[in-house]
Design goal:
Blueprint: E1 2-7, H1 19-32, E2 37-40, H2 60-70, E3 75-78, E4 81-82, H3 88-101, E5 108-111, H4 116-122, H5 129-148, E6 154-155, E7 160-161, E8 178-181, H6 188-195, E9 198-202, H7 207-224, E10 232-238, H8 246-258, E11 263-267, H9 274-288
Parallel strand pairs: 1-2, 1-11, 2-3, 4-5, 5-8, 8-9, 9-10, 10-11
Antiparallel strand pairs: 6-7
Length: about 290
């Protein structure tokens, strides 16, 4: 099993001038200590589970490009891109750029978006959920067409592209892995089965609920003729080395591995606490590698 770190905050000791170095320190520690992925949120306001909207939040793809410059091996992604925030053609170029400049370490994490407050706040159209899912499916189709090298028009209900030209192409072949986040049983998991290389579910729901989501995903795969085993199963989970022992965190990962998960992406209360990060790097990462 792989272990990733999901970064959710940008409030650091020393104030805003210290953000650059603090982010670099976390990135280089994870890069050098066996973490598989380093992800950031795709939000413009901080979200409620982490604090007030006014707390610091950096733009996700700008952060990932910086992380690409200060790391060498770790895979980089947003968890997850809100489909309404960027035109699909631009999104494909952004992820392609990240892949080229990172030496082939980009993933595209994407979802239907949910944060109406930040969308309204910044003037981003926030259509009804059904429409956002239509936009998500068209975006998946457009990105995959651009990454296929096939240059032709795309005509959808929401997006029309005259020429899906994308040079340079990504270094990762056949394309950067495409991860869809969310556990919606009718639409999200069906799109995972149809388009994605990976899914992401929340372990917070409990192992029984997560097992049910995997069963639904397998049903979609069967209906579409997709091999369920082709899909990388990832899960997001919280961990707090200040209140949990390493063995407790390891046991949570072991249970996830028993369900078939390939990776757990951990969120820490304070990712800039290097002592907590070292517990994950020195104890959890090597233990999970044996699952």
């Amino acid at each position: 099993m792989r272990i990733g770190l999901h970064m959710t905050t940008f409030d650091v000791p020393g104030g805003n001038a210290g953000i650059r170095q603090a982010v670099k320190d976390v990135a280089q520690y994870t890069d050098g200590n066996g973490f598989a992925t380093l992800s950031v949120m795709d939000h413009f306001f901080q979200i409620g589970v982490n604090g007030a909207p006014e707390r610091n939040m950096l733009e996700g793809y700008s952060v990932l490009n910086y992380l690409a410059a200060v790391t060498e091996r770790i895979q980089l992604l947003t968890m997850v891109t809100g489909v309404i925030y960027r035109h699909p053609g631009i999104l494909a170029k952004q992820v392609t750029t990240l892949d080229v400049l990172s030496g082939g370490r980009a993933m595209l994490g994407i979802g239907a978006a949910w944060n109406e407050q930040e969308s309204r706040g910044l003037g981003i159209p926030f259509p009804p959920l059904a429409e956002r899912f239509e936009q998500l499916e068209e975006t998946l189709q457009i990105v995959l067409q651009m990454w296929s090298g096939e240059v032709k028009p795309y005509t959808g209900k929401h997006y029309q592209l005259a020429q899906t030209l994308n040079n340079p192409m990504p270094l990762t072949q056949p394309h950067p892995p495409l991860l869809i986040g969310g556990g919606g049983e009718k639409k999200t998991l069906r799109m995972v089965a149809q388009y994605a290389d990976a899914c992401n579910l929340f372990l917070f729901a409990g192992m029984e609920a997560v097992q049910h989501k995997l069963d639904v995903l397998k049903q979609h795969c069967d209906a579409l003729g997709r091999d369920f085993d082709e899909i990388m199963l990832t899960a997001t989970a919280g961990a707090n080395p200040a209140t949990q022992s390493a063995s407790e965190i390891i046991e949570m990962c072991r249970q996830a591995a028993a369900l078939g998960f390939d990776e757990v992406m951990l969120m820490l209360p304070n990712e800039y606490d290097m002592r907590a990060l070292e517990v994950i790097g020195k104890e959890v990462v090597p233990a999970a590698a044996g699952f």
